[in-house]
Write a structure and sequence with these properties.
The chain contains 6 helices and 6 strands, in the order βααβααβααβββ. It is α/β, with parallel strands linked by helices and 149 residues long. It comes from Thermodesulfitimonas autotrophica.
């Protein structure tokens, strides 16, 4: 595969969450490989959810200065897709036709409308494909990102 890969919020959050060192190490590895290859992409939704999660939901929350620096780094080095009215409308269709939760549908819609063939997340059924978007869990046993790059 030579396409881009959309990273969901949970992958970013694990990189900053010291409570699960195994997932933290895997998240770092995946994010580093995607950054080095230039194939990783994010959405504005993912960055917004990341801010909330790492400042409120992890065991050792980050301070806002550190979070701002991380977001600035992602914005300057990764492609970040905006949430447009078309993404919102497509997400509603994803909820209606595929029974996604709205926020998951918005991730799917962002990938689909921007022709991103793979979403890395532990929040979807790993290996499933919906209208050309394949969901993979980077924390699943045997996951090897190199097979998809």
């Amino acid at each position: 595969m030579t396409g881009k890969v959309l990273v969901d919020t949970n992958v970013l959050v694990y990189a900053y969450d010291f409570s699960d060192p195994v997932k933290q190490e895997q998240a770092f590895k995946v994010l580093d490989e995607l950054a080095q290859s230039g194939r990783g992409v994010l959405s504005a939704q993912v960055l917004a959810e990341f801010v909330v999660a790492v400042t409120r939901k992890i065991e050792q929350p980050l301070d806002l200065k550190a979070v701002q620096k991380s977001v600035e780094n992602y914005l300057s080095s990764w492609t970040v897709f905006d949430i447009t009215s078309f993404v919102v409308l497509e997400a509603v269709r994803g909820v209606r036709e595929h029974r996604f939760s709205y926020w998951d549908a918005q991730i799917w819609a962002t990938a689909r409308l921007n022709q991103i063939p793979v979403v890395l997340s532990e929040g979807f059924a790993s290996g499933s494909t919906v209208e050309g978007v394949t969901f993979l869990n980077p924390f699943a046993a045997g996951f090897d990102l190199a097979r998809f790059l």
